[in-house]
Design goal:
Blueprint: H1 7-22, E1 37-42, E2 51-55, E3 69-76, H2 78-91, H3 104-117, H4 123-138, H5 153-176, H6 182-199, H7 203-219, H8 240-260, H9 309-326, H10 336-355, H11 366-369, H12 381-402, H13 406-409, H14 416-438, H15 442-446, H16 454-470, H17 481-495, H18 500-516, H19 521-535, H20 557-560, H21 564-569, H22 572-579, H23 585-592
Parallel strand pairs: 1-3
Antiparallel strand pairs: 2-3
Helix pairs in contact: 2-3, 2-4, 4-5, 4-6, 5-6, 6-7, 7-8, 8-9, 9-10, 10-12, 12-14, 12-16, 14-16, 14-17, 16-17, 16-18, 17-18, 17-19
């Protein structure tokens, strides 16, 4: 029978145990503290370099070693920042809905009030503001010209690199200061998203992801809903808004981590976040406006579209991928039969995931959704983009899981399902891309600056090139695949100025196909298309909103068609090694294209 300790013993025990908390490494070395930052404001069009150094007032110039310098960050004017924030909320936030959007304008006001009074600003809020400046300038298109901040979209885009560098420097300062805040975590996630679009899943982006998770752990986001947690020990629990935003942030980090483990990366098969080491409820399916401090949150049915519908489906997909990876075959398994059973199980679960999507995310319902009133959220541009994206990711995953058995499917009836599934999914990916082109919106222009779609396009290109190389007849691969290859190449060509990866993939895929199937119809179609575009009168095939980069910049024959030496160096073995996960050039593409949902 358990007996309670007397009150005096409880107090003594608590006092002694508090020594452990007091000595648990909370002391910081002053020598590691970041230098002070001076903030200034200026009209955004006049900011050529957001951060710079100036000599500290009163410092001596007698010796270079003695000269004190102060780091300065030049922020946009308050009203300019509100315009950038509005752009961010409208066009970018829905990709990573980890905010309570009604609170963001107040955060801007608090930051600028502190700047105007000459007070120290919260470095986490500063990180978030810099991240929003970077995101908004990077995704700025000609549709944003009416906002009045920039003369041309190119002027905005050219600022993005400076804002990104400044944001990364400030994140480093936050680490030196041992700063933790949800605003800082949100800013790091936004920066991660932009970095993935710029350079893919590089060592830098993986490190930033790990640092973000570490800060979230320190803040206790992984245990917001722990049953025995003390509300006073975790202040986030005391605010309805903060607790719900914390859940969104944690689950976003978790699903990103689980998706990263599916890529051909050093992290493949390993996780930084494990479900049994967290106590966090799923975010509620509710709109931001319905989350108010002190009021209970109403969790709406999943079939009802909200601002977090996409996040909740991300979580479902990530849990599915985690389950497949965690319970899948071991790294040392060599049984082909066991591996193929795992492929078929993954295929079944992915298709079940798509069947269970809310109706407004199912692509086959697009015609019905288009008849709804314009005010219906299911017709909003955000939901439309998310619908396209989810379907693109699904077909890309189908290609990926069946790709190792595509070649065998051409000769072995037992694997024919994989061959057919790959080609069908590939055609759907290209079809979705054409539907995206026909949708005149900001996303139509900025999508080529994001890796959010190119992993699926890349896998589709690999499938088509491999099928074309393995085809036994001179007519090329399966019926309809020849035109699809040409379509995929044109998509890559259209994106080559925005994505170096797309340009490299275009060249390499043409080289491989020409080496192994020089008479492939897709090559002939591409040559004819190249000739027709060059012969077209000026203005014909020019840019349109639906097809923004076509015609005039098509490469010449020397650029498009490889030399004999290039064809010899582009071996089919390179492609096959990639399928096995050991190729260098092709595998680098897989590494760099990023997770399908970002």
């Amino acid at each position: 029978m358990q007996q309670r300790m007397p009150g005096r013993l409880q107090l003594v025990t608590a006092d002694v145990l508090s020594i452990q908390d007091h000595c648990s490494g909370k002391r910081l070395l002053d020598s590691l503290a970041p230098p002070p930052i001076s903030l200034r404001t200026r009209r955004i069009g006049a900011i050529s370099k957001p951060s710079f150094f100036v000599q500290r007032p009163g410092s001596s110039q007698a010796s270079a070693e003695e000269v004190g310098v102060v780091k300065c960050i030049c922020l946009p004017l308050r009203e300019d920042t509100h315009v950038l924030l509005d752009k961010f909320i409208q066009d970018v936030l829905h990709f990573h809905h980890i905010f309570h959007s009604p609170s963001l304008p107040f955060l801007v006001e608090r930051l600028y009030d502190a700047v105007d009074r000459g007070e120290d600003v919260d470095i986490g809020q500063l990180v978030l503001m810099l991240a929003i400046c970077c995101s908004s300038t990077y995704t700025w298109t000609r549709y944003d010209d009416d906002r009045g901040l920039f003369g041309r979209a190119e002027d905005a885009n050219s600022q993005a690199a400076g804002w990104l560098t400044t944001a990364l420097d400030t994140i480093h300062d936050a680490h030196l200061a041992a700063h933790t805040s949800m605003a800082c975590i949100q800013g790091m996630i936004v920066v991660y998203f932009i970095m993935c679009s710029l350079e893919g899943i590089s060592a830098r982006t993986r490190l930033l992801h790990a640092q973000t998770i570490a800060m979230a752990h320190v803040m206790g986001l992984h245990s917001i809903d722990a049953p025995n947690a003390n509300a006073n020990a975790n202040p986030i629990r005391q605010s309805t808004v903060q607790a719900e935003v914390g859940r969104r942030i944690w689950w976003h980090l978790a699903d990103t981590d689980w998706m990263l483990s599916r890529l051909s990366l050093p992290q493949q098969g390993s996780y930084l976040i494990l479900p049994f080491q967290m106590a966090v409820r799923k975010p509620c399916n509710t709109n931001d406006e319905d989350i108010v401090d002190g009021c209970e949150i109403v969790d709406r049915p999943l079939e009802e579209a909200t601002s977090v519908s996409y996040l909740l489906q991300r979580i479902r997909l990530a849990e599915l991928l985690f389950d497949l990876g965690w319970h899948g075959k071991s790294a040392n398994s060599t049984s082909e039969e066991a591996e193929y059973l795992g492929v078929m199980e993954a295929d079944m679960k992915l298709r079940q995931f798509m069947r269970e999507l809310p109706s407004f995310f199912r692509l086959e319902n697009s015609a019905t959704l288009s008849t709804l009133p314009g005010s219906d959220i299911r017709r909003s541009s955000n939901i439309t983009i998310q619908r396209y994206t989810l379907n693109m990711i699904f077909h890309g995953q189908i290609c990926k899981i069946h790709l190792p058995f595509l070649a065998k499917g051409t000769i072995h009836p037992g694997f024919a399902y994989s061959h057919d599934s790959c080609l069908t999914a590939t055609q759907r990916i290209i079809c979705i891309e054409h539907q995206l082109r026909a949708d005149i919106s900001t996303f139509t222009l900025l999508r080529q600056r994001m890796n959010i779609k190119f992993r699926s396009i890349f896998i589709a290109c690999v499938v088509l090139v491999l099928d074309g190389c393995l085809a036994s007849s001179a007519e090329g691969g399966a019926k309809g695949s020849n035109a699809t290859i040409a379509d995929a190449w044109e998509i890559l060509h259209d994106a080559k100025d925005q994505s170096p990866v797309a340009s490299e993939l275009l060249q390499l895929s043409i080289q491989i196909l020409q080496k192994h199937k020089a008479t492939h119809p897709a090559l002939e179609m591409m040559k004819r298309e190249n000739y027709n575009k060059r012969a077209a009168p000026a203005g014909e095939n020019g840019p349109t909103d639906a097809e923004p980069i076509r015609g005039s910049s098509w490469p010449n024959d020397a650029e498009l068609w490889p030399s004999e030496a290039e064809r010899e160096s582009a071996g089919l073995g390179m492609l096959w090694q990639t399928i096995q996960g050991r190729g260098r050039e092709w595998n680098d593409f897989f590494w760099g294209l990023g997770p399908p949902l970002m």
